[in-house]
């Protein structure tokens, strides 16, 4: 649709016309703000915990666990230089504290959601799959943070109360 | 011919005071839109409805995605 609109604008006489072809789906999936009745406040991006711990592939699992003990978190995401999610250190690996690298201790390819995911849909999925949280990544795979089910459920309940 | 831009280039254009136009129907614009965007649905795009746009500044159009 937007290519036709761009061409139409040129036919009207506009000379500097650009077409953001990936559109608002791309904008929202990068965690950038959207306004409107179902804008960013109703999306995962507004409620994500951005302070979730991260580590690198070659970090030692034991060191990662010690840092987690101090932070109070019970999970950690293994990311690369661009903050792209490579894996997740889960509770089982943390309990085991094996003398291995994060790469050896992680679960590869964790399931993720986009920042633009609608909270209502995410809560339904979390309940259906019995999930307590879901990592939020951009469309390029970069970690935004962790969405906790309790935060998402609270936000949905608040929205329904004010409707 | 209009120039296709990605997200990074769009952000740069917005810093340069580009005008942003969502060309989807009104209901979809009301549902969600980029901050600062105005709505001129494709079916209403003509010389009259575009009078609100400055011809001396860049104009960026967008819809939902590639479709």
Structure at a glance:
The complex is a heterodimer of chains A (163) and B (67). Chain A is an alpha+beta fold.
Largest sheet of chain A, if any? Answer: 4 strands, mixed
Provide a count of the helices of chain B: 2
Average pLDDT value of chain B?
Answer: 93
Q: What is the helix/strand order of chain B?
A: EHEHEEE
Strand order of the largest sheet of chain B: 4-2-5
Number of helices of chain A: 7
Fraction in beta strands of chain A: 15-25%
Assembly type: heterodimer
Overall average pLDDT of chain A: 91
The helix/strand class of chain B is alpha/beta
Q: Please give the share of residues in helix of chain B.
A: 10-25%
Radius of gyration of chain B: 12 Å
- Low-confidence stretches of chain B are none
Can you describe this structure?
The complex is a heterodimer of chains A (163) and B (67). Chain A is of the alpha+beta class and 163 residues long. Chain A is 39% helix and 18% strand. Chain A is built from 7 helices and 8 strands; from the N terminus they run αβαββαββααβαββα. In chain A, the strands form 2 sheets. Chain A has a 4-stranded mixed beta sheet. Chain A has a two-stranded antiparallel sheet with strand order 7-8. In chain A, α6 (119-129) packs across α7 (149-162). By secondary structure, chain B is of the alpha/beta class. Chain B is built from 2 helices and 5 strands. Chain B has a 3-stranded parallel beta sheet with strand order 4-2-5, covered by helices on one side. The longest helix of chain B has 9 residues, at 7-15. At the A-B interface, α1, β1, α2 and β2 of A face β1, α1, α2, β3 and β5 of B. β2 of chain A pairs antiparallel with β3 of chain B, so a sheet runs across the interface.
Task: Identify the notable features of this structure and list them briefly.
heterodimer, A: two-stranded antiparallel ribbon, 7 helices, flat, B: alpha/beta, 3-stranded parallel sheet
